[in-house]
Every structure is written in structure tokens, then in C-alpha cells.
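Me: Here is a favour to ask of a fellow structure person. Could you put it straight underneath, so I can go through it closely?

Assistant:
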Amino acid sequence: MPLRAAYGYDRQFFYRLAINPADFARTAYGITVDQPYRFMRIGYPVITWLASAGQRALVAARGHGLAATGARLRPAATGALVLAGRA
């Protein structure tokens, strides 16, 4: 897979926004947002920020835990929709 130096990874932008979801500066905490649409993906970072009580040291741990929980719940939610005839 070719890598481009100009692009980043979703997780690094989620982490950057989870540290402070109200900081819309292009560069913060050593991470520069490459595309403006990154700021529209605010749901997961806000939930992570709330789960970490705004403490930067807890953001990575809480974010990982929330991602793992979401990955476990997604198949169950999809199964429920299929059984209900909505998927």
C-alpha cells in the first residue's frame, strides 16, 4: 500500500480531536489536520473526551476501549436489524 506523507490516519485525528473537541485550529498537540472534513467526524472524539473526563492522559485508553466495545456491539446491532427485516 503506497503511503503519502501529506495524509494522516483516522486514529491520529480522532486522538487529536478527543484531546480537546472544541479546538478547531489546523495544528494542535503536534498534529496538523490534513483535510477540513476531519472536523466533521466529531462524534467518536467527543464520546472519548467525555469518557476520559477531559483528561488527556486517559484519552488513548478510553478511545481504545470504546473502539473495542463498538466493534463487539456492531455485529449484534446488525443481527437485530436483520431479524427485524430492516437491514
